């Protein structure tokens, strides 16, 4: 069990009759489900993380450097990921299998608004782990922790228009499609001569999904009835 670091609670201020909140931070936590452990990244994750980030689907749908190098991974683990939490922007969690401790993927909260208690979630799954429901399981665990333990009121997801796998995760979680941001993201696609390993940038629309606490009611049970998994309530 990881120790829980101090959490800086939001302090309300009144300026010109408007209540403002100072930036807060998420606690340093790990979250456990039946199959997974979500915890901060460490240096032992670097080789598996490099492999995952150089997968073609990850290259296509993320803004990560390509090719993703040892230097990139070490910078992520040592500086970028921890800073997401300490600056108040969000939190980054490595997703690992409970039994094997193998890296399954990652879940990242970002663009956190501590006044409205809302945040955006993004997730990546390693190619070997796709089709197992790990993305849904991990994001559901984080959503339950956010709503029940942290008192958050809204989670937002943004999926590229052609990223159907990511959209299926949003739908399984009970997210509501709220609209389309046209031409709002740069993705990547193989060049015509794909054998040379080349990639080129393309514009894509983003589908915006919203998840509120009431949207999660019954989701875990529905997934369990469909042969999925139950509720997650073990975080520390």
From TrEMBL:
Pfam families: Acetyltransf_3
InterPro entries xref list: Acyl_CoA_acyltransferase (IPR016181), GNAT_dom (IPR000182), Ribosomal_N-acetyltransferase (IPR051908)
Annotated signal peptide: none
GO MF term list: protein N-terminal-serine acetyltransferase activity; protein-N-terminal-alanine acetyltransferase activity
Top-level taxon: Bacteria
Gene3D superfamilies registered for this protein in UniProt: 3.40.630.30
GO cellular component annotations of the record: cytoplasm
Keywords linked to the UniProt accession: Transferase
Coiled coil feature spans: none
N-acetyltransferase domain boundaries: 36-192
Name by which UniProt lists this protein: Protein N-acetyltransferase, RimJ/RimL family
Species assigned in the record: Streptomyces atratus
């Amino acid at each position: 069990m990881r120790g829980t670091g101090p959490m800086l609670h939001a302090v309300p201020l009144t300026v010109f009759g408007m209540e403002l909140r100072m930036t807060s931070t998420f606690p340093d936590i790990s979250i456990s489900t039946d199959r997974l452990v979500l915890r901060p990244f460490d240096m032992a994750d670097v080789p598996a993380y490099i492999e995952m980030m150089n997968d073609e689907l990850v290259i296509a749908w993320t803004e990560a450097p390509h090719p993703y190098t040892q230097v990139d991974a070490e910078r992520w683990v040592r500086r970028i990921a921890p800073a997401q939490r300490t600056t108040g922007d969000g939190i980054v969690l490595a997703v690992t299998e409970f039994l094997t401790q193998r890296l399954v993927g990652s879940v990242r909260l970002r663009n956190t608004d501590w006044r409205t208690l809302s945040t955006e979630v993004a997730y990546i799954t390693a190619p070997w782990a796709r089709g197992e429901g790990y993305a849904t399981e991990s994001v559901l665990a984080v959503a339950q922790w956010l709503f029940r333990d942290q008192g958050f009121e809204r989670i937002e997801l943004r999926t590229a228009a052609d990223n159907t796998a990511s959209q299926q995760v949003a739908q399984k979680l009970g997210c509501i499609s709220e609209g389309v941001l046209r031409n709002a993201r740069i993705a990547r696609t193989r060049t015509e001569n794909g054998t040379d390993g080349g990639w080129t940038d393309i514009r894509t629309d983003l589908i915006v999904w919203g998840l509120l606490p009431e949207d999660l009611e019954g989701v875990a049970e529905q997934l369990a009835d469909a042969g999925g998994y139950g509720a997650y309530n073990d975080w520390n």
